[in-house]
Amino acid sequence: MNEVKSLGAKELNKEIELNVNGEKHSLSVAPNKTLLSVLRSQLGLTGTKYGCGAGECGACTVLVDGKPIPSCLTLAVAVKGKRITTIEGLSQNGNLHPIQEEFVKSMAIQCGYCTPGFVLITKALLDQNPNPTDEEIKQYIKGNICRCTGYVKIVEAINAAAKRLRKTREVKI
Ligand code: FES
Ligand code: FES
Fold it and tell me: What is the number of the ligand closest to the CA of 58?
């Protein structure tokens, strides 16, 4: 008689390598695990937040090959080999990224739950459009929800960060 072997959850896991913030991680991941879950529970990168779990709030935004994606709707196995950036990857040598600093200076943070997502979407915006208009900013961040600030300070922070980063680019040139 044939023995039917039932597979345990661990046996169904896939071995993948994720490149997160420039570091490679070899992981055993269930095929149905979201990137958000793997970042938070397996890699301890809790800066990426769980909000709605349905692609509606932007709290879980990370960059994949420079593009913002909702990590709550992205399977970890789907981004193996891609360049993933989380909020933890933005600071350099213990210094906040200029975008983070401008969010602090502009008082665009209250409870802070939405902030990692806003900072990363700002990074994606300014990488592709260094001098956006207010309308372009509002359009780009419309998938990110903030329950506290009313968005005015966030737009101010993005404008301030854009100005500062443009100056940095001029100096480098
Ligand atoms: Fe992913 Fe809300 S938690 S979009
Ligand atoms: Fe609280 Fe945005 S600062 S949700």
Answer: 1
State the CATH class of domain 98-172: mainly alpha
Give the global pTM: 0.92
Tell me if the domain spanning 13-89 has CATH number 3.40.640.10: no
Q: How far is the C-alpha of 22 from the C-alpha of 102, rounded, in Å? A: 24
Give dist(CA 118, CA 77) in Å, integer.
25
Domain ranges of the chain: 13-89, 98-172
Work out which ligand 2 atom sits closest to the CA atom of 148.
1
Ligand 2, atom 1: closest residue by C-alpha: 111
Assign 110 to helix, strand or coil.
coil
pLDDT tens digits, residue range 1-39? 444 455 566 678 999 999 999 999 999 999 999 999 999
Q: Which two tokens stand for residue 21?
A: 């913030």
